[in-house]
Design goal:
503 residues; alpha/beta; Rossmann fold; Serine Threonine Protein Phosphatase 5, Tetratricopeptide repeat; DNA Cyclobutane Dipyrimidine Photolyase, subunit A, domain 3; globular
Length: 503
């Protein structure tokens, strides 16, 4: 029995990370959970469970929170720990051994993964195409002496189904419409662990292995304190070496429980007006789920399936003459189709770009026409601010300042204003390259949904990716699409937003 013996439903989501052997004398299959931090609709977990069943060994799940990456801070760690607490309960309810592990300076350079992999048949992990998870998998695949496979559970489509970068939303939308019905067969199950299973590790085996580990599991009491707002959380997090200047967001609690509640509220109260009101500033009709998608606390597959079931959708009702169009192909309500286009086409366009381009979060990845027009106007006279002034929302633009304060305070920026936020940084930075660096720096540090293919799509859209040349040609922007705070103020009722984030 090898690692390839798997349900055909998942095979296009699985890739081998190294050529190490499967350890047929191993005591368990280890699932190293680093981006799909959930039980439900998790292709990585389903694959690991199938491997454990085939090799007739228990399944061991290690959820690891790394604190060694560049933007590790209290905000990010608190959100992940809150999700980890949900997982402790959920995996206990499903009789699966679950090890919560927060990396600390005392854990050493190898970490818990290397400890546990020694007794593993094989290691299964998550295939995430950017930032720290991508680097961590590359490093681990070379340093552990067990077969490692990574499983793609990022979205509706397996990333491997595309053989190139799609440069426009329209071209990728045609791909989505062409293969959507087929891709339903690749979706992981809602509950990947069978009701009556033999994946549980007996207590004596668990205790015997525990006695061999060099380090203890991260104590539940510390996790609970670190997940709490206020002084309790600050004191707990102060013991780990991360950036403590970016505080948690009290009204954004990580974990599946919160995500499911938010999804239920969105479907009941806002989906029906999504097409018209998603960009409204006062009462935007958005789901607000992007941080929970980013940390893998809920799957976009679950959301799409819920929406299709609500609408009574059937593949037989597809309007094929609308292939590639933003509306009409699904034959569903206009707002439903608008949301599906965002959560599938636009979100997975970012994953397509990250999957095929190592430079996806670099200025050099912009299309040629965009780099040309920006360079032609790089020396144009402009109002300039320093990164410190921008970070502190110390500019002449009240709308922009409010958006930046929302990012720093709440870990998000309003959907429409995030685009304006980027356009104005392009105006104020010394060069377009520096503008890109500043947007990434601020977004990755403060945004709960930063460090994500979707975030990089938004940032580089500001600079021309997935867009076309616009006229008239303007100073600084050249042929890049222009946005202004004055137009935004005329378009929306901005006063309540300005009042909320005035200081």
């Amino acid at each position: 029995m090898g690692w390839r013996s798997v349900n055909p439903r998942l095979i296009d989501r699985v890739r081998s990370c190294n050529e190490q052997p499967v350890n047929l004398e191993g005591k368990y299959v280890l699932y190293w959970m680093i981006s799909n931090r959930r039980l439900n609709y998790n292709a990585s977990l389903e694959y690991a469970a199938e491997m454990a069943k085939q090799h007739e060994v228990p399944l061991l799940v290690l959820e690891e929170i790394s604190t060694s990456h560049r933007f590790a801070n209290d905000r990010i760690c608190t959100f992940m720990i809150q999700g980890m607490l949900d997982n402790i309960r959920t995996f206990r309810e499903h009789n699966i051994r679950f090890i919560p592990w927060v990396e600390t300076p005392l854990s050493g350079p190898s970490g818990k993964l290397h400890e546990l992999s020694q007794d593993a048949v094989m290691v299964v992990t998550d295939d995430f195409p950017t930032y720290f998870p991508l680097k961590a998998v590359k490093y681990a695949s070379k340093s552990i002496h067990r077969r490692m496979v990574a499983v793609d559970s990022n979205g509706v489509f397996p990333m491997s189904w595309t053989d190139r970068i799609y440069t426009t939303a329209h071209s990728f939308r045609r791909f989505v419409h062409q293969r959507f019905v087929e891709c339903l067969e690749t979706w992981p199950r809602a509950n990947p662990i069978p009701k009556h299973h033999s994946l549980w590790m007996e207590d004596e085996d668990y205790l015997q292995l525990s006695s061999q580990w060099k380090f203890n599991v991260t104590p539940f009491e510390w996790l609970w304190r670190a997940s709490e707002p206020g002084s309790s959380g600050r004191n707990a997090l102060s013991t780990i070496d991360i950036d403590h200047s970016v505080p948690p967001v009290p009204r954004a609690r990580g974990g599946r429980d919160t995500a499911v509640r938010m999804l239920r509220e969105f479907l009941a109260n806002r989906l029906y007006r999504y097409a018209d009101d998603r960009n409204e500033v006062t009462k935007p009709a958005t789901s607000g789920l992007s941080p929970w998608f980013h940390f893998g606390h809920i799957s976009t597959i679950e959301v799409v399936q819920r929406i299709l079931d609500m609408g009574g959708w059937d593949p037989e009702t597809i309007q094929m003459d609308r292939k590639g169009a933003r509306e009409g192909w699904w034959n569903l309500e206009r707002s439903t189709e608008s949301f599906l286009d965002q959560i599938i086409t636009w979100r997975e366009l970012g994953f397509n770009n990250a999957f095929h381009s190592p430079e996806h979060n670099k200025y050099e990845s912009l299309p040629g026409w965009a780099k040309t027009t920006l360079m032609e106007h790089a020396s144009d006279e402009r109002v300039q601010y320093t990164l410190t002034q921008i970070e502190q929302a110390d500019t002449h633009d009240d709308i922009w300042n409010a958006a930046q304060r929302q990012l720093v305070r709440d870990g998000i920026i309003h959907n429409y204003l995030r685009m304006l936020w980027g356009k104005r940084i392009l105006e104020w930075a010394p060069t377009p390259q520096i503008a890109a660096d500043w947007m990434i720096e601020l977004n990755d540090r403060y945004a709960l949904d930063g460090r994500d293919p979707n975030s990089y799509t938004g940032i580089f859209w500001v600079l021309g990716r997935h867009d076309r040349a616009w006229g008239p040609e303007r100073a600084i922007f050249g042929k890049i699409r222009y946005m202004s705070s004055a137009n935004t103020q005329r378009k929306f009722n901005i006063k309540p937003y300005l009042q909320e984030y005035k200081n």
